[in-house]
Amino acid sequence: MKSAAAAALVLCATLGGAAAAQANGWVYEMPATSEGNHEATWGDNCEKIEFDYDGVTSYTLPDTYTVVVVKAGNTNTVYEFFGGGDVSALNGKDISHIIYCPGPGGS
Question: For 35-63, b where at least 16 C-beta lie within 10 A, e where not — what string?
Fold first, then answer.
């Protein structure tokens, strides 16, 4: 994982964003930025799914990923060490895109 994801946790704590431990790993919220909207910011071999603000508030990812970023409104919800299942934005807004990054050797 690139340093951007690690720095995001520090930024989240600095800005007072939400962070919590989950069974899958960590999930936290941080401000969305234009840099954070690019797959390469989060790691190697990341992919992006785009939504058209059509009322999608959750999405199921069946595999394991090192990082999953859910962009909704002006916020990114970041899941680290995600073990598969549903993702959504902590702010409850419609999802505009999801970036997901497989671990070493794929997902």
Answer: ebeebebbbeebeeeebeeeeeeeeebee
What predicted TM-score, i.e. pTM, was given to this entire model? 0.75
Question: Which H, E and C letters describe the chain, residue by residue?
Answer: CCHHHHHHHHHHHHHCCCEEEECCEEEEEEECCCHHHCHHHHCCCCEEEECCCCCCCEEEECCCEEEEEEEECCEEEEEEEECCEEEECCCCCCCCEEEEECECCEC
Per-residue pLDDT of the chain (107 residues; tens, 9 = 90+): 444 444 444 334 333 444 444 456 889 999 999 999 999 999 989 999 999 767 899 999 988 899 999 999 999 999 999 988 999 999 999 999 999 998 765 54
